[in-house]
Amino acid sequence: MKKRKAKSLLACLVATSLLAATTSVFAAATESQGPVTSQNQSETEQRADFVKGEALILYRPGISARNNSLQGFTIKQEWDFSSNRPYVAGTEAEKVALVSKDNLSTEELISQLELMDGVIYAEPNYIYHINGMTSDTYIDSQWGLKSEKDGEPGIDVQAGWNAAENGEENVVAVLDSGVDYTNPDLKNVMWVNPGNANVQGKHGYDFFQKDPDPMPTSIEEGGEYGDSHGTHCAGIIAAEIGNAQGIAGVSPNTKIMALRIGDAQGMPTDAILGAYEYMITAKQNGVNIVAANNSWGGSGGSKIFEYALNKTGELGILSVCAAGNDQANIDEIFDFPASIDSPYILSVAASDQDNSLSTFSSYGKKNVDVAAPGTTILSTVAMDYYLPFLKKDKQADNAYYNPLDAEVVELEEETQPQAVEEVSTVRYAVGDLEISNIRKSITDENGNTRYEDVSDIVSFTTYAKGYDNKALSLSTRGLAYGDEIQFDIRVENPYYGKSAPTEQLYVSMVNSSVESSPENILHGIQIAQKDKKNLAIHSSGAYPDSWNAPLAEVSVDPAEEYLTFEVTVLVRADTASEILFDEFGIGTSTGKYGLMSGTSMATPMATGAVALVASVYPNETVQQIRDRIIGGVVPLSADGEKVASGGRIDLESAIANPNPVASSVIVKNGSGLLTGNFLNGSILEIDGKAVKIESRSDKDIVFNAYGIALNQYHEVTLIKNKKSYTYRLWFAEKAEDVETITSMPDNMYSVDGELFAGNNKLYYVDGIGQLYILNGNKWQLDKNFSIAVGSERAGGIQYGGYFYHDNHIWAVGYVMVSEGVIELVLNCYDLQSKSWTQGAVISDCNGLVYEENGSLVMKRTVYQDKLYIYAANYAMDGTGIVSFDLKTGDVQNEPVPENFDEMLNYGRPIAFQTVGDKLVLVHPQMTGVEYPAFNTVAEVYLFDGTKWTKGKSIDCKDENAMNQMILSSEVAYQDKLVFTDLQMEGYGDTITYQVSKDKWESADYSVGDLDVRDAATLNDYYYFITLDGTLCRISMKEQESFIPPVWGDIGNTTTDPNQGDENGTWKQNEKGWWLERKDGSYPINEWAEVDGKWYHFDNLGYMQTGWVSVPSGWYYLNADGSMATGWQLINGKWYYLNEQGTMQTGWVSVSSSWYYLNADGSMATGWQFVDGKWYYLNEQGTMLTGWNDINGKWYYLGDNGAMWEDTTTPDGYQVNASGAWTE
Predict the structure, then answer these.
(1) Is it the case that residue 391 has pLDDT exceeding 50?
(2) Whole-prediction pTM value?
(3) Backbone angles phi, psi at 1166, to 5 degrees
(4) Dihedral sign, CA of 627, 633, 639, 640?
(5) Measured by CB atoms within 10 angstroms of the end CB, which terminus of the chain is less buried, N or C?
(6) Rounded mean pLDDT of the chain?
(7) If phi over 0 gives left and psi between -120 and 50 gives alpha, with beta otherwise, what is residue 794?
(8) pLDDT above 70: residue 764
């Protein structure tokens, strides 16, 4: 289906209103019809802007400016449109005149003119504006939709509208606090359930309250301005365009599906999962959902949500996620869901009107894709609001208006306070607005409030840069975090001595702040009418460099000469701030429209762009649409290095000419595969060095990855059209040894099940309590197991965990006995008799077992025939660890590590597993850590059944890697704790902690580029379920153990234990050579010097030959194992190894000559493009300088070897753009 088109209006300035009198007006006007009355005018004419007190008339010369028929009227101008025809009496040509009359309104003027003989038509003197966008009344306040051509760093929505004129209709799901579908700008753009989508609700669903109405909590129901969050997002995405009211949305071909997942206080994961399931069902039943807007986030990760997100992505739904407002680098500090590594996420930062990242915005070169306008964003809300600057005529249409841009004047102090709470006599004036009684509110421990004069440290001045022109500034110098400052504003009552207004009045102003510290600060601002009770108040926050607006109802008594308002400022900074106020007014509602700032606003700006681009390119994949947005950017003026794309969304670029985008890299056998989009014509560099491209297409580049370290991050730069685009990507090694076993059964509900092993078998209990047993390569359902899961079934028990012990499967659950009272329930299933028995009910465990978003959350393991349960943040009787004896049924509290109290700061442990003969707890180190900085060290604690000891910790480098460990399906194998599916610098994707050696190290097996959802170990295999529901396995068996040594020889030289140098003796067996030291040990994974030569030994202790990669680089070991240095000819290519033996890359100087070595270390020859310049290396690899004849053409190469182009050489010769000499 095709949707309404976004009209592209001509930008034209009409100096007079002549064009309002169109041909049709003349044709319709006949003597018999009489004048056209105001009742006949269209709604558009009644809404239009016009010059007040003036009218245009079409008349016959029976009346004219020369006679008395228009006595009392002023003829300002006349026009004669008659053709040059001969004059015939009684047939005078009509004329047009612009008239006015003192003390008449436009309506009164037209009414009088319409009653006059000879007036054919009377109408207002309409004003037409330059406006290349829409007729929406507030469009001028939507800076984020504009472009640099308009003087605003927005997303250039007009270019998008032009391209989407015939676009395909699609749907965007807004997962948020609900959407007010009655808002006049949203009522016509809501998705309407067709009835065959197999989902409930007309416009969506409320997964928070579990009903089919996704309306947000209303003000009447106790809601707050924050509950308009979802409505605000919906308006940014798709508010109706060109309806002559309110605002315009980004995407003209999009309908809004409202999925309520929470309110202003939070959004639980179970509601979010319900919304994602709703989208999947609707999509599979034909609803064209292209994106999900997620303007929410937090620090806790969910593997289940990641699974659901990828499932929707596979169906073609892109999840657009907010980067967060914590001013944090989310490459290092995990932010959910924006930090999730998925091809189906677009993560968005906020940009401001200076084309930089907003002060509050989080960022990340790896995890944040693009920036979009996110400060001072006007959009739809779910309540009547008032913003003085939205009135068409600010002075005339507001009851009272003060732009607060006049110079602040300090008035003469009052002799004494006028009331008890007035403690200050200092007063200021801004125009006709007076500020007084500047005070600090202090509340004592008994709840009593007193006021302290702070006028000596709090001052008001004029600030140069306000919302519009200048602003009023309050300085917080001398104040502390948490101080509550108040002051009074007094203005003349606009209704003094007049009739009281019939409509509800409001007071509002916009506020912002300027900070001396880069900290993210959000001051709290509130305004209220003084000494008036029961009037609604809505506070706001003052972010740096963005504008929001508090609001309060106003009650007017015409007998009172002045209105007084109390402004409260909650200071949230320890450093000096300037809190700004602008655009103060009193007036009637400007409709259901309000300001918000945050990455929450930047996200729907990006979501709207996604939907618009998807409507233009309906046949492109979700990855292509995503990459169009990432590639369709213009550079940020500052902070571009903080986001992957380096820029701000630009729809013209996204649609017509996106930049190259690199998404992922996989390496296999020295060959790298870079995938992305728009890659044709790109030069590829890794970590600043050019690499050899083997083949390329628009979607991938195959390159020589020899010598590039794997399982770590690298800077990938694509150079196209002389511009560089750099991405930070993980270089994953293609999984070689992964064996696919089977797919999960179609009837298995596998979203939140559990995989575990026992008695040489693999078990899986799915999300609805069905038990499956792996038989060969097929899952077999145990129909006798059939445990019901969920609080509404199975006696109210919520099951959340399963494990095997002694031929039984135990189910762990809990039940809410009463409000706030929880019991832990343990039931066991006998695999032999196929029957259930109740194991135990553990009472008084409110602190031990807790609900997180509707799921059972705790760590548990079986150790020495006891079930140990750990929940650090919710301790039972102050311990946090309890055991249940699986044989006797005894329950007891267990010892905890010494610094357990510190662990309470981070409730979720990384691992709690039985490994060998120890119980191992791995927990984030939280000592001395303050938000937003997180310690990335994971600490190990070992329990032997009696006491805890501390093991070796590991530095995860960043919080993302730590969170990956938390979400990892860790398993125990032999005496090792194993973590997979990671991206940890220095370790790779699989790491182990070996209890017996107290050692962290990389594993020699890997899941490669696969994503793990759940895992278990069985018979030397690591079994895991991928996110797409495939059961796989890899061998965990270590390489063959070291074979007992026998004496051997090197060449013709025989050795024995008493020969060799002081470092040891060479020995050999059929596996190879090793070096035995005098103490009987031998080097493993390390260098050793023997007879003045260096040798390297592998992880089994055998001497290595050929190319070897170690953390310090690549080395070449000769046939005798000795380390090579200098120039080496290897397999037909030259390499240079420095004095330390390290293979060199890039530019090297050897014997006064320069050489360029490729990324794989091989010496380059011929023309080479390096760092944006061309160089020529002869057959010996030497860089040439000066004039050189190359393939019959002369080129001039500077002293640095770079080719000169399109210029004159030092000796006066001209070279063209290709560098060749032109005669």
Answers:
(1) yes
(2) 0.69
(3) 75, -165
(4) positive
(5) C
(6) 83
(7) left
(8) yes
